[in-house]
Every structure is written in C-alpha cells, then in structure tokens.
Amino acid sequence: MISKRIEEIINLLDRCNTLADIGCDHGYVAVEAIKREIANKAFAVDINFQPLLKAKELSKKENVDDKIEFLLGNGFDPIEEEVDEAVIAGMGAENICSILSRAKDKISNTTLVLQPMKDIELLRKWLFENGFDILMEKVIKDKDRFYVIIKSIYLPEKISFSDKDIYIGRHILYRTEEGYEFLLKMKEKMQKIMGMKTKSFLDTSYEEKVLTMIEEELKKW
C-alpha cells in the first residue's frame, strides 16, 4: 500500500506519454503511473543501485516492468530524451535545485512535480528566478509530518511572484485545514528560532519578516 504522500504526488500528475521518476527509491511513482495508465512509459532513475533493484522487483510484481526503463545515474543525466513530466520527491530542496540546474536544457517542456523534504523556500525561489512558475502547491499531512508538493512549468514570459510566494507558498490560496496547521507549525518554529537568536544577540530580521507574513495569512483563514 502506498503512502498518502505518494498518492498525493500521483494525483498531481497529468496523463502523459513519458514520465521520469528522479531519485525513484522503491519506484512507487513510476509503477503506479504505469499501472493507472497515467504514463505510457516511465524512466526510473536513482543514483544508487539498490533502490533501482527494489524498483525493478516491484515493477515485475505489478507486471509493468516492460514499460519502465531503469537507469543508474544522477538526476536527468542518464535520460537521453525530453520527458513530458518528472517527479523529484523525498530529498532536500538544495539537492532538487542542483538536479534542475544541471537539466535546464532538458526540462523547458516538462511539467515538474516536486516534493522537497526541507528548505522549501529555496526551491520556490530557484523556480521563480529560473523562469518556472508554480501552478499548484499543496500541503498534506502524512503520519504526523507535513509535506509540501509543488507543480511547476517553465514559462518563456516573465513571471510575477512575491516574497509571500517564496516564504509562505501558494498553498494558502486553497485555505485547507492541513495548510492552516502547517502555518501554525511554521509560526511555532520561527518563534523558537527567533527566541534562540535573540538570546545570542543575532539578527532576527528574517524570522520577523516571515512571522509577519504568517500572522497576516492566519488572520484571513
């Protein structure tokens, strides 16, 4: 049984011809996308050999291994063609940004579904500054942990974005219960960091700025 996190990632995929599951781990996304006929063909890519073996085993068990190509390598490097959609999930934002930076020439026509484990604001900033707009952003809670999932595409025209889009995120447009809980958790974290910095006489201007944005949004819920 796949997790709620993986299920929500799959729910953001559009019907497509080719899908890349970057950092595929057990291959759940690639396998489910083929099983559900969301993609006709998938590339399951991982930098380590063992996860690829597990993904291959799963694909055989589910009888979809003939539609998935298993590739050992970093990010999009081993994929020799453009793909319609790509999922990068379960790693830090800095790592995701690095993968996207190396593949910029390959992904201008690719819809990206991204799920960073930390430093989400870094990823949002990279996307906006590199011409990728955020079409949708969801906050989900799975086993008492919050996850942010972002759907993004490259746009040739100039993108309009605000500090709030970077530091809070566009999930606030949907006013979900999970989004509200996530903001409360962010507020608690910022207050804690600000308290520690204050005791050490460190600059708290960043935390103050984010806290102000969070409190403004919480009032609107």
UniProtKB/TrEMBL annotation:
Any Pfam family: Methyltransf_18
Alphabetized InterPro entries for the sequence: SAM-dependent_MTases_sf, TrmK
GO molecular function, one term: tRNA (adenine(22)-N1)-methyltransferase activity
Source organism superkingdom: Bacteria
Protein name per its UniProtKB record: SAM-dependent methyltransferase
Organism of origin: Caldicellulosiruptor owensensis (strain ATCC 700167 / DSM 13100 / OL)
Lineage, top ranks: Bacteria, Bacillati, Bacillota, Bacillota incertae sedis, Caldicellulosiruptorales
